[in-house]
Input
Amino acid sequence: MNNQFGHSLRMTIFGASHDSHIGILIEGLPAGIPLPAELFTADIDRRRPQLRGETTRHESDTLHIEGLDNNDTSTGAPIRITFQNSNTRSTDYTHLVEHPRPSHADLVQRRKYGEEYNIAGGGMASGRMTVALVAAGVVAKQVIPEVAFTSELISVGGNSDSATFDATIAEAARMGDSVGGVVECRATGIPHSLGEPFFDSVESIIAHLIFSIPAVKGIEFGDGFRGCAKRGSERNDSIIDAAGHTATNNEGGINGGITNGNDIVLRVAIKPTPSIALEQRTYNFREAAISALTIGGRHDACIARRAAVVVEAMVAFALADLKLRA
Ligand SMILES: Cc1cc2nc3c(=O)[nH]c(=O)nc-3n(C[C@H](O)[C@H](O)[C@H](O)COP(=O)(O)O)c2cc1C
Output
């Protein structure tokens, strides 16, 4: 199993939803970067469940960092960040061994990793793992302090009026159902010339990391799918100065796999949470028949709001790795 990503800056994710701990090992980090625990608080809080319709599994998300010097600063050695899992209720998942959840990873994980594989909480295929990705993003942001990020939910359940988001999520939760959403991430202050033409194009590396986030179903850069309906004459980004700034940014800041110095803009499609309270009819392996499944556990009615900071973290990691390669 490959749990590692990165070329010059590398991360290795470990643990599973109901293991005692989960975490991330980061290698290739330059010396001299201060990483006090408080630095992580804001981003970790952005991922926490807060609203009605979000999971009632509350973890303290207190992180433990190893590998820093006495001033909490990197030395060039690997660092390891761990989070304890304490609020687990594994019995909620026992029946899913024989009656796997539709659109979740219970069946595929047990078929691939064996009957002893622990699917409690979703195993490795759990939103819980993304707290480790957020921590990696905080570290990555220190490698690229010149880059600023804004990431927001731009649609929920197909509706882009932000005034409706909370009510739509709460209503889905009340119905025992779930909704999907789209997250937009914008990174400004991007140095030009990151990335390469082929397999290490900036889009390839960002997309690879974005698809490591559970529940992601799509990504587009710049004007993405919408832009393909336009004429070149309407869409091309005119260069307006010697720095390579453009009048429009339909390319989302990347040409030929290489950053052009304009903002990187991308949107990520996040599916409705697969675990819903509503009864579903799906195959039961013990009965060898399709039967009614009721899922227990504590689930988000909408993953997308909590996932915005995870998307941002993965973009930051991609850019930090690319910068350190240069
Ligand atoms: C922040 C976050 C929270 C999530 N919360 C839940 C949840 O409460 N219940 C659930 O069934 N899936 C949740 N997921 C999604 C599952 O982890 C995901 O659908 C599953 O791993 C299968 O992977 P796939 O959807 O990419 O195929 C969450 C994902 C993220 C990123």
Remarks:
- The chain has eight helices and 13 strands.
- The longest strand covers residues 148-156.
- Helices lie at 41-47, 106-113, 130-143, 165-174, 202-210, 224-227, 232-235, 304-325.
- The mean pLDDT is 95.
